[in-house]
Amino acid sequence: MGLWLLLHCWGTIALAIALFALWPNVLTFVLAVMVIGSRQLGLAILMHEAAHNALFKTRRWNELAGDWLCGRPILADLGAYRHYHLTHHRFTQTDKDPDLVLSSKFPTSRASLRRKFTRDLTGQTGIKQLLGQIAMSLQLAGDDDAIKAANSDFAQSFKAPRLWGALPVFFGIALLISLIGDWWWGLAFWLLPYLTWFQFVLRVRNIAEHGATEQSENPLQNVRTTRAGPLARLLVAPYWVNYHLEHHMVMHVPCWQLRRMHALLLKKGLGEQMRIAKGYGQALAEAGWRRA
User: Fold this and answer.
1) Is 153 left (phi over 0), alpha (psi -120 to 50) or beta?
2) CA 188 to CA 196: how far, in whole Å?
3) pLDDT 10s digit of each residue in the chain, 292 long?
4) Contact yes or no for 46/5 (Cβ under 8 A)
5) What CA–CA distance (Å, rounded) separates 280 from 292?
């Protein structure tokens, strides 16, 4: 199943580019950027699965695929992410949760969310983060002790402290896309989605998962599951990432089994106790979109 998900993710990226190649116009261009950005999030999700050793049966394949086929293509570091993320699982929505600094900002105002989304969609967030990664990599160059410390810096999340190990993969993919099509395709169909739509859906996903949830150790209320239809799964929430409550309850359940786990929890009569949003619109509304 892990192999199928990887093939699906990269195949969807290829199909989005092929769609524009066959019918080049503004609509197919924008759709391709959005779909590819969502699949870049898909790669992050599959890296997350590998961090839990849930993408493949063996640790070796989780390490190889999670690093080279999922992490490096989006300038991420599997090892750094695993350390960060397991700490988040251990201390979810408590004072020791490294993600609390993100979720505690919600609910906020509609104006604040609009500013955040504007920065994401115009590339400001992506450029700022990329320049920050480059600066950090230059600062840490050759200093293994400093790199280990950076791996413990929760604020870096899954970003790669050793950026120079990921950059050749990232730009290699862009170069390959340009060689397949026109010279500008790599910039348009890999760098642009990374700097824009990927940043936007990454923020939406983060808000939906823990924004404006209960700050407690209650696993049914300190995290949110968000129902997602076909369009949301295509553009915002690939690979069952919306079933986040279920993932936190038993973090080693593979992502493709989370929908089944959700159904079992409802069958057990726990639905009224679970924090479930009817869609991403409701999740954002609870996080502040409906506020002035």
Assistant:
1) beta
2) 11
3) 999 999 999 999 999 999 999 999 999 999 999 999 999 999 999 999 999 999 999 999 999 999 999 999 999 989 888 888 888 999 999 888 888 887 888 999 999 999 999 999 999 999 998 888 887 777 655 544 444 444 444 344 456 556 778 999 999 999 999 999 999 999 999 999 999 999 999 999 999 999 999 988 899 999 999 999 999 999 999 999 999 999 999 999 999 999 999 999 999 999 999 999 999 999 999 999 887 6
4) yes
5) 19
Place of tokens 């369009």: 231
Rounded to whole angstroms, the Cα distance separating 239 from 281 reads 19
What are residue 76's phi and psi, to 5 degrees?
Answer: -115, 165
* SS3 track for the chain: CHHHHHHHHHHHHHHHHHHHHHCCCHHHHHHHHHHHHHHHHHHHHHHHHHHCCCCCCCHHHHHHHHHHHHHHHHCECHHHHHHHHHHHHHCCCCCCCCCHHHHCCCCCCHHHHHHHHHHHHCCHHHHHHHHHHHHHHHHHCCCHHHHHHHHCCHHHCCECCCHHHHHHHHHHHHHHHHHHCCCCHHHHHHHHHHHCHHHHHHHHHHHHHHCCCCCCCCCCCCCCEECCCHHHHHHCCCCCCCCHHHHHHCCCCCHHHHHHHHHHHHHCCCHHHCCEECCHHHHHHHHHHCCC
Q: Which two tokens stand for residue 143?
A: 């200093």
